[in-house]
Amino acid sequence: MTSTKKPIKQEDPSHQQQLRMIFTSKMKFKALSNQRYSRRNRILISVMSYSKTPKLNNNDVMSDILLRLPLKDLVGCKCACKWWNSLISDPVFKLNYTQRNSQYNVSGFFLQKFLFLELHSKLLFFPCGGQINAAPQPSLSFIEDDKGVRIQHACSGLLFCSSFRCGEEDRKYYVCKPTTKQYFSLPNPECRTVFGINITYDPNRSPQYKIVCICDSYISKNHRQIKIYSPATGSWKPSGKPFIVSDKDMLFNRGVICNGVLHWVGKGNLALRFNPEIEVLVTMPMPPIQEELTERKVRYFGESGGHLLLIEACGPLTAGFDIMEMKADYSGWFIKYHLNLGRVAMQCPAVERANRLSILHFVYHRVEDEDESFMVIHVPGEFVSFKLRNCSLMNLRTNNHVDLGLGLWYSWDGVYPYSNANFYL
């Protein structure tokens, strides 16, 4: 009688490997917890353990774990695997992380000044709201460019930068996030001359930014061409036909974004606005130039709280000036405030001696029915906040070192408003 042996059922090697990974991950996490690791490390280990459990591939649970990570670790996790990168890059996740972690929120402005023979531009950052400790470091040295780097434009927490000391053919362009030191390189717009280049970005409308470039045209030296770069395509494309610019002194390098629309003014009577979503360029009215002047003296052009603001003055600002606001239907400008900064001169001896100051930034701010708007003013050696309601002065707080011996180094065209709308790219 011959006995028949039952074949031994062998376990699937892949199943054994999964069990071993789960067991090892749980043991590591238990050991680390017993050693009383910090909350931050326990979260990181739980992420590692969860990611090694193949049968628990649930996006909602994983997103909930990632939401609890500190910003620096979260950005690092984007490079760990494609799954994490996909979750962290999702616009809904970005919004949830931003709302959950208000400690990273900060708004303010960068000041940029170019120094002779310096590779990088000199930067300062002044917070106007949010957490001052979350302010970005005033340096672009994390961008690797042997020609140096300067800021070209800023919008909603993104800086658009370029190579510094070089010709257009050698210039490189970057989109960066200074708080996390992330940056991406962009292709050159392929033109001879760039007159102005601006970044538009509204995370509440779209997760994608756009770059708008005003460059030369092949038709004539008086024509300009708008080109748009979109990260979705990774390339530049012409927008509309070339257009004639009668004002050779258009400030295309100081475009102002208000309600998603780009605005440019000049030293003459021409002013333009461009909607990058529908790609339409139209003119807009400007106040008349004073009779005794041959060109417009723009002392400030900017935006705050959805209001487009303009300051013009032919004499010293201490003699008084108007702050004008564009009407909502673009039919014209009206005087929003009339200011006399004689009190600033009385309280700041440097202003009284030199009779000089510059307006850097305007913040439109209302608390219930009270107008709490203020201006940031630069006087020789100082930066002060001037509240419009009661004409009070206050020194600005900053984490940066300010040379008290400096003169009137900065003006409005070296100011780049910064609002950390999204904490990372």
- Tell me the major beta sheet: 4 strands, antiparallel
| Number of helices, counting only DSSP H or I runs of 4 residues or more | 8
Strand content: 25-35%
Helix amount:
10-25%
Indicate the overall shape: globular
Mean pLDDT: 79
Largest sheet strand order: 3-4-5-6
Low-pLDDT parts are 5-16, 21-37
Radius of gyration: 27 Å
The number of distinct β-strands equals 25
Protein name: F-box domain-containing protein
Domain F-box associated beta-propeller type: 146-267
InterPro entries: At3g26010-like, F-box-assoc_dom_typ1, F-box-assoc_interact_dom, F-box-like_dom_sf, F-box_dom
Domain F-box: 59-91
Verbal overview:
- The chain is built from eight helices and 25 strands.
- By secondary structure, the chain is an alpha+beta fold.
- The protein has a four-stranded antiparallel beta sheet, with no helix packed on it.
- Helix 1 runs antiparallel to helix 2.
- The radius of gyration is 27 Å and the shape is globular.
- About 7% of the residues have low confidence.
